[in-house]
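Data follows
____________
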Amino acid sequence: MKRFFAVTLVLLFAGCASVDDAKPPSIQLSNLRLGTGGILNQELLIEIRIGNPNNFDLPLTGLTFQLDVNGQPFADGLSNATVTVPRLGYATVPVTGQTNIISVFRQLMFLGKSDRITYRLHGDAYVGRLGINQAVPYERKGELSLLPDGGAPSPDGTPPDGGVRTLAPVERSL
């Protein structure tokens, strides 16, 4: 009986993929809303979509993030939400973030100088297995155009739609 128990344990642990073998999750900003705010700070209610490129479920026990905009720190946040990202699948994690008035003003001043916004979203996804939480780092960089469809402004400098600015992803050719 002892031998059966020992063989079962060995097979159980051999069949479990190690978090060390995990590929980093893919991360996308899925939704961003303003929460409560004060004179100096603004709460951000964010949904982050996590993709699992691994052939095993990723049981997430938490998430941290930092958002840099135009090369400057803009917001950071935390989540202690527990979610299992299915193998080769996606899940959405709610995250509460915060920014301060100085970061907001810095970005507003930059908007008048450029029609593009660069961003970097990075942090750690905490994967829990067998009672141990391990941080798996992630990073996503991108660029958004303030012009529709990433179009160029007219010769007089106004956006092609008559002055209305919207956010559109910048298409990049490979």
In short: The helical segments are 2-15, 101-111.
